[in-house]
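Reopening: GTPase Obg still failing for me.
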Amino acid sequence: MFADSAKIFIKSGKGGDGHVSFRRELYVPNGGPDGGDGGRGGDIIFEVDKGLNALTDFRHVRKYVATSGEEGGKRRCHGKDGQDLVIKVPEGTVIKDFESGKVIADMSGGNMRETILKGGNGGNGNMHYATATMQVPKYAQPGQDGQELWVILELKVIADVGLVGFPNVGKSTLLSRVSNARPKIANYHFTTINPHLGVVDLDDHKSFVMADIPGLIEGASEGVGLGHAFLKHIERTKVLIHMVDAASTEGRDPIEDIKAINGELEKYNPELLKRPQVIAANKIDALGPDGQETTEKIRSFFEKDGIKVFPISAVSGQGLKELLYYVYGLLQELDDTPVVFEREFDPSEILINENLPYTVEKLKEGYYSIEGPKIEKMLGYTNIDSEKGFEFFQNFLKKTGILEDLEKAGIQEGDTVKMYGLEFDYYK
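Support: Ran it again with your exact input. Result attached.
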């Protein structure tokens, strides 16, 4: 089964915690802090594997988590970094944020490898927090959390030309005749349920890539049938060949068919109608005496709008050379830069709270101490002598969990809390 979309969970590794330890040597009873830093968490990286052509593997494994960094050690030992997780995808895979539907990365063009989620930074060991006033810091920085995200993977085929049309009009037959592709061919609807790519080789080393897009039906833009699954593959193509059954072997009007397909393209993405279009009026070998009149009717309706019509027979090969060279000429007039979807969402902007350490310690009955860079930083930008500043200070203690830690340590109303030369009485 061809798989062209999947929903997966990805998470980068957590940074390792910093370590708290103190140097212990003979004849040095009170050595300084020597706790090492934690290792960095592993990244989530997507990489193109040109040997893949479907997202089938993601139907079985939906959770991808990079390893976390190791905790720092004694004697300033740095924790080992977490291992990056490389996820292999086919070329042409678009990675989207599940919540917003915005594009994170398009794994095509020159973009063969991209880091989607960065691992968390390792925390600093207590050796970083020794100061003139705090020479034995009993705290270290926790490692930064990894980032996590649900993403949608969508495979959009990369082709210069897209063959579109109702089911059973001969698209697969045409592709098999003019390229190296070998799609399944039979005389019933939806023989093709997967897009097929083929390289069309012309004389003088001229070539282009053509995609047989599975048959569209009315309502495809609303997701009827496999509408969305089929339409997404048209978005990268630069030229569209509308293939119609000029002989009306199934009783459909070829002009109405083209109008209906264009209507679905416009509903799905109006930009698609701005691309050059060509009409291949197929099955002229099955036309009766009025065959010339039928093709002229199609021409008179569309060529006034600049859409060229080519009567062809995919079975006999009649008219194919003229069609293919005309399409090649259109491609030469267009920008040869691959159609790549621009980034709309940057996971690196996901906010991760600054995780500075602190300690809550009971020094003696009724007397508690709070220390750490988190406290120093807050006191540095807060005027607690003002009413608003003191209110902010109280909210800070509550939101950061410091009050909860004091209560766990056994603090009672009226007890004293010491912070870097400041003392406060505790009241709820």
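The chain has three domains: 1-155, 161-333, 359-425. If you still see a failure, please send the error message rather than a screenshot.
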